[in-house]
Design brief:
single chain, mainly alpha, 4 helices, about 0% strand
Length: about 110
């Protein structure tokens, strides 16, 4: 019963995360909501294509940083969203351990 609940929560959270990350990445790549190129100074990036494709919050914060505002709020939101995904993943694994792999008999 608990593993079913964990599975549903994980599906909902990761679906939401995937859809919004996809939309955010497309927005960065298409330059719809890209930050100014001045924010990329001192980083490895010359445009927002690679950060838009990666879109991992810790890497994004370390490489680009974020001034106060909507960008930082979204980074905090998605980092916070990742925490229950990790917690529910661990709880799901504990509630329903992986089945043992079948062993193959070696020919004699």
């Amino acid at each position: 019963m608990a593993s079913r609940l964990f599975r549903v929560v994980l599906i909902v959270l990761t679906t939401f995360l995937a859809l919004t990350a996809f939309a955010g990445g497309i927005g960065l790549i298409a330059d719809l909501n890209a930050p100014s190129l001045g924010m990329l100074e001192g980083s490895l990036f010359h445009n927002c294509i690679v950060p838009g494709l990666a879109l991992f919050e810790i890497v994004e914060i370390m490489a680009i940083g974020s001034p106060p505002g909507i960008a930082r709020d979204l980074q905090i939101f998605y980092f916070t969203l990742g925490s229950p995904i990790v917690a529910f993943s661990i709880a799901f694994r504990v509630a329903k351990p992986a089945a043992p792999r079948p062993t193959q008999a070696t020919p004699a």
